[in-house]
Amino acid sequence: xxxxxxxxxxxxxxxxxxxxxxxxxxxxxxxxxxxxxxxxxxxxxxxxxxxxxxxxxxxxxxxxxxxxxxxxxxxxxxxxxxxxxxxxxxxxxxxxxxxxxxxxxxxxxxxxxxxxxxxxxxxxxxxxxxxxxxxxxxxxxxxxxxxxxxxxxxxxxxxxxxxxxxxxxxxxxxxxxxxxxxxxxxxxxxxxxxxxxxxxxxxxxxx
Length: 207
Description:
The protein is α/β, with parallel strands linked by helices. The chain has helices at 2-9, 20-33, 47-57, 72-80, 93-101, 113-121, 132-135, 137-144, 164-170, 188-206, and strands at 11-14, 37-41, 63-67, 85-87, 105-107, 109-110, 127-129, 153-155, 175-177.
């Protein structure tokens, strides 16, 4: 399901700082705009509660997951809350194996080819290229020349509608969208408007 859901528009909404009382409205706005993968970082207020709310209120074709997952214990907590996807800022082997053993989709953070190969060997469904500004566009083309065919690289960090095109031209499969999409307290309708702008920008870059 992860691969087909990601293929819809290649975008993952990162809702860092989301409060549970915002979750339903923000999630609904994102879904209405066309987003189908939503991540709540675990360093947000009551993130497991927000994940529960998103999973209960959004249709089944929307994947809900957690970001900034740093331990095997957190993997189980996310699963118990209804999360389906584990997103990591790093490539910790214990967390990788815990996610796959729990039957969850997995997108670890990588910043070198060595980390990328290790993550794929552990069963990663996609690779979070992080931080994208540091790794750079040129790395994507170089990595994809040696990584297994079909590897999905997702730049995260500093992505805006205006700078997506070079990453896509280099072979990126999509993006994780952070503060340019959502920041705490932003009205749900504005989050939806921004999501729509990202989706339009990606489509224009792909045409």
